[in-house]
Amino acid sequence: MKYAYYPGCSLERNAAAYDHSVREVADLLGIRLQEIDDWNCCGATEYFSRNELAACAVIARNLALVEPQTDQLVAPCAACYLNLIKTDKLMVDHPEFGKEVNQCLAAGGLKYEPGRVTVRHMLDVIVDDIGETAVRDKVVRPLAGLRVAPYYGCQVVRPISNNDNPEYPMKMDHLLKWLGAEVVDYPVKAHCCGGHMTQISEPQAFELIRRLLQNAQDYVADMIVCMCPMCQLNLDGYQSRVNGFFGTEFKLPIMYFTQMLGIAFGIDPQKLGFGKEIVTAMPVLEAKLGGQPV
Amino acid sequence: MADKIGIYVCHCGSNIAGTIDVEEVARWAGKNIGDVVVSKDYKFLCSSLGQQMIEDDIRSEGLTGVVVGACSPHLHEKTFRNACKRAGLNPFLCQMTNLREHVSWVNSDKAAGTKKAKALIFAAAERVKRQKPLEPMEVEVNPATLVVGGGIAGLQATLELADAGYLVYLVEREPSIGGHMAQFDKTFPTLDCSACILTPKMSEVGQHENVTMFTYSELEEVSGSVGNFKVKIRKKARYVDYDKCTGCGICTEKCPRKVIDDVFEAGMGYRKAIYSPFPQAVPRIPVIDAENCTWFTRGKCRVCSKVCPTDAVDYDQKDEIVELNVGNIIMATGWKLFDCKRIPQYGFGRLANVYTNMEFERLCNAAGPTSGKIVMRDGKTEPKSVAIVHCVGSRDVNSNPYCSGVCCMAALKFGHLVLEKTKAEVYSFYIDMRTPMKDYEEFYQRLLEEGMHFVRGKVAEVTDAARKPDEKGKLIVQVEDTLLGKQRRIPVDMVILMGGLEPQADAKELGLKCGISCSMAGWYTERHPKLDPVATMTDGVFVAGVCQGPKDIPAAVAQGAAAAARVAGMIAKGTVTIEPIVASIDEEGCSGCRICNNLCPFNAIEYDEEKKVSRVITALCKGCGTCVAACPAGVITGAHFNNEQIFAEIDGILWDAKPQAEVEIASV
């Protein structure tokens, strides 16, 4: 199966582990990812609130660059995913606006026909297109004994549905179970991580992060498995700051679901970007997966 | 003989005259449509003076056809047909055209409305000239009635008819009659015991000489039409001989197999594999649940058979089909509870102490699994605080947009019971408190005084994710209190979700069997939402209770009685008039291909083996026209809808679209 691939900026830097593991896992599952040639930044959340037309034009450029042979585009980053899908939907729902966006694109000799490309999240591709049997078939190192808290965050499940329950999504729960992991019923799984709030008001941001970590700890989870670079950064990168702020002692590794897939598939952890996380996953993986060379 | 057509255009006050120049339409029709001898407009044609005017014209002018441009024929076709009949004109020579619902009410452009009205009048006139006098048929009404559903609405309908001296067949899917009301503890707002007021009615039905019950049975097939329906009932195998069993209950007592009772106990309690759903069940004849019975699943046991003193257990019993003839059918098939798992953020099925309203009914019922003690899932701890969440699966575009009508009052009832039986604090989370019927608002006031806490706001989630130490081990209800304008988190021990009412899963399928349709939400559609609430568009089929839409017990009972009254009226009259709009087959041209026999949805075409031709059974034909269209030889005619009439109507509608020469047909 062939898909266009939009990594986005995060996956080139702080979320490189996500990018590496997505590519490795896709390879093994027969998902052919064709990176969009000369893709650009999606503008994240800020651009939309400043200038909608410019924001959409920046995003639509990526849609226009998807090769005509494919109409499926995979974006692993939750923010990129939502921006791409939102732009396409705005252009479909408001043809006049779509024309304005295309006038912008025309300056660069590009054109995008609204609705041509279907934007997909990597999780949906693996769960819906590949499916349970094919995933289970590839598992060589079941994650038995590992207690994971699946954390979805906001942007993939809301406001535009990816055929999961927007209030209480289950797709990643299922996927992690296929890998043999013990999946905790994580009640805050679709709550907000705070996004960029750390840059605006630390007390507010730290409280949002604390709730997520606290709940995972209450449920005796060994780690939180996420699907968004922003969530990963907040929970992992700010964990020690949160501990300092509240006097807590959280020590929860925050991993991407594709990294866990890779481990279960027997891929070399180095190739999956293990070790790039700040709260290291090594000790818990070694303890729980029976001293496997992780 | 030349046609003499009278045209009458109604103002309907300003309903029609407001957006159609009715005087112009009448004047124009008199001049431009052929064979028209009278053309008038009138303020209210349906008034007795209006009718009298038409009658007088028929007599004085010798009219051979009448066109009435007014409202929908659903409302007044009968009125004008009767007026014609009184004046000696065959009622089927009167044609109504709908200038109100089809023109004036859906249009604001007077010129365009007037133009369309002219075309419709033209069409009706061209049609009426080609209509033939028809004589309606009278058929006898079978005095027996089928009632489908043994809940409170069906029971009421059954008793009303049976007490009036008429025979009733009552079909119920479950092993006992009683319906949902049998599961309730108390009823609002009077707080009288539900079973105490229901069971006398149940036993009355069970013992009534005019009632034949078919419990553990389903409606399989319906054919025929008003006055003379043929129905097939599937009596599911009970594996207990109905005649031999005395209802002593030893089999149930000795049965070694315990099963969770998902139906009557809403999953809160157990029953045996051979069981009666509850002690006051009617009939008291148990059934064997073959899916769970050890004999059926593993070929061992037979304990029930061994202990039965009358040898009533019969493992070889098979489903049985019973055929009945009835004159009328009352559908009272009830509802099912919204599946609260469809709103996962409320935690039902995940968080132990989240209950549905039906579970809570059983929990606080003295005859329920805890003997009425309000305790949590551990079976012993009394809750210190209880949250009641309204509108779960109601008033929500993500599930059901409608209001289920009964949940606010049921929530108040629950609040009262919790306050009465425990020391718990009770919180109600509501969008709007809906208490519109007799004594309902007073009950709300009573609960306010009793100290129930009311928080206006739709609950966002019920979670066990504690943020603060005092939330540990609790269920936290996260809600925006829209009166305070604040987000609140209220930790409680127990949460009750007020699940909404939904149509039965097979309501649509069952409705199709007897020719009635469902609304978008799946409730059965009544003939008129205000003025004909228990009849349906199929004559002889009536609806009662929640299957027609959410309602409380008093309303369901009222509808049951209303449906019975309608049926009793039909039976008392003895005959019913059937429209003579039926198909007929020209036997000369019929090749006997039998295509029509198989297509007819009403089984109204029989095949004459001797003559090798098909023939329409007039009493069964509904005039749908399927056979007319399908006949390869074109020898089936639909009375009142033959090709000539339909084409003339189309020609009339297009009067101004045709080349001038052809309009000549219109001029005298």
Task: Summarize the structure in words.
The complex is a heterodimer of chains A (about 290) and B (about 675). Chain A contains twelve helices and eight strands. The relative contact order of chain A is 0.14. The radius of gyration of chain A is 19 Å and the shape is globular. In chain A, about 45% of the residues lie in helices and about 10% in strands. Chain A is an alpha/beta fold and about 290 residues long. Chain A has helices spanning about 15-30, 45-50, 50-65, 80-95, 95-105, 120-140, 170-180, 200-220, 230-235, 240-245, 255-265, 280-290, and strands at about 1-5, 30-35, 70-75, 120, 145-150, 180-185, 225, 255. Chain B has about 675 residues and is an alpha/beta fold. Chain B folds into four domains: about 5-135 and about 645-665, Rossmann fold, CATH 3.40.50; about 145-175 and about 190-330 and about 505-575, FAD/NAD(P)-binding domain (3-Layer(bba) Sandwich); about 335-500, FAD/NAD(P)-binding domain (3-Layer(bba) Sandwich), CATH 3.50.50; about 585-640, Alpha-Beta Plaits (2-Layer Sandwich), CATH 3.30.70.20. Chain B is built from 18 helices and 34 strands. In chain B, the strands form twelve sheets. In chain B, strands 10-7-6-18-29 form a five-stranded parallel beta sheet, with helices on one face. A five-stranded parallel beta sheet of chain B has the order 20-27-21-22-23. In chain B, helix 1 packs across helix 4, helix 2 (about 50-60) packs across helix 3 (about 75-85) and helix 11 packs parallel to helix 12 (about 440-450). The interface of A and B includes residues 168 and 185 of A.
Oligomeric organization of the protein chains? heterodimer
For the largest interface, the chains and their residue counts are:
A-B, 11 and 11 residues
- The proportion of residues forming helix of chain B, as a percent range, comes to 25-40%
SS-derived structural category of chain B: alpha/beta
